[in-house]
């Protein structure tokens, strides 16, 4: 654990002199070594915590086919660089610089997908089409959520830090072309980019 006083203005109150940062190295199951940072302003109470995965593995795709209600409890680990898909819902979640890593289960992933899809439908312009889309998504989601409709969860991770914990999960390496098409949520520079 390392504590550092920062001589910089607080992002909230803009007062200089009260900002400090605490960093802690952690070994987190499934994610590996990481660095937790917490910023705190003694002046206004501002607080911001973040976690960064320090390790990198080979790029991979993990795929799981949920077939029944018991499969809803299968553990899902999505790193902040993972692109997640549920093709049967037309769901795609790509990483952004604000993406969080999380550990959940298949049911939790479905809940997150529902929230995203409901928000996306709201932005659809045509009211009649919006109603049809909503009915379609919710009908399929409900069947999946009750274990009556098989579906697939797929995660592509260019840094290899995502996982689905089941003996039925399929894993394969991503090709260089597949990795090049993925968003990472990070700004990534290669040494050759700097030359």
What's the gist of this structure?
The chain has helices spanning 106-122, 127-145, 176-181, 191-194, and strands spanning 2-6, 19-28, 32-41, 47-53, 60-66, 75-78, 83-86, 91-93, 102-105, 151-157, 163-165, 170-173. The protein is α+β, with helices and mostly antiparallel strands and 195 residues long. It has a five-stranded antiparallel beta sheet, covered by helices on one side.
Q: Average pLDDT value? A: 87
Largest sheet: 5 strands, antiparallel
DSSP E strands, number: 12
So, the CATH homologous superfamily of the largest domain?
Answer: ZPR1, A/B domain
Q: Helix count? A: 4
Structure description:
The protein is of the alpha+beta class and 195 residues long. The protein folds into 2 domains: 2-53, Single Sheet (N-terminal domain of TfIIb); 60-194, Jelly Rolls, CATH 2.60.120. The chain is 24% helix and 35% strand. It has 4 helices and 12 strands, in the order E-E-E-E-E-E-E-E-E-H-H-E-E-E-H-H. The chain has helices spanning 106-122, 127-145, 176-181, 191-194, and strands at residues 2-6, 19-28, 32-41, 47-53, 60-66, 75-78, 83-86, 91-93, 102-105, 151-157, 163-165, 170-173. The strands form 3 sheets. It has a 5-stranded antiparallel beta sheet, covered by helices on one side. The protein has a 4-stranded antiparallel beta sheet with strand order 1-2-3-4, with no helix packed on it. A hairpin with a 5-residue loop joins strand 3 (32-41) and strand 4 (47-53). Helix 1 (106-122) runs antiparallel to helix 2 (127-145). The chain is globular. The relative contact order is 0.19. The model has no long low-confidence stretch (mean pLDDT 87).
């Amino acid at each position: 654990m390392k504590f550092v006083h920062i001589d910089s203005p607080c992002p909230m109150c803009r007062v200089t002199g009260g900002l400090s940062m605490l960093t802690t190295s952690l070994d987190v199951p499934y994610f590996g070594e990481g660095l937790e940072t917490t910023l705190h302003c003694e002046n206004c109470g501002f607080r911001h915590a973040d976690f960064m995965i320090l390790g990198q593995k080979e790029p991979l795709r993990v795929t799981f086919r949920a077939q029944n209600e018991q499969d809803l409890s299968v553990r899902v680990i999505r790193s902040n660089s993972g692109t997640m898909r549920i093709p049967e819902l037309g769901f795609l979640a790509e990483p952004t610089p604000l993406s969080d890593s999380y550990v959940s289960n298949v049911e939790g992933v479905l809940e997150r997908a529902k929230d995203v899809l409901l928000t996306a439908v709201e932005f659809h312009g045509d009211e009649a089409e919006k109603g049809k889309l909503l009915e379609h998504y919710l009908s399929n989601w409900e069947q999946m959520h009750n274990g009556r409709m098989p579906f697939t969860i797929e995660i592509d991770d260019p840094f290899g830090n995502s996982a689905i914990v089941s003996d039925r999960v399929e894993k394969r390496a991503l090709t260089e072309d597949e990795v090049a098409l993925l968003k990472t949520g990070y700004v990534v520079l290669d040494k050759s980019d700097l030359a």
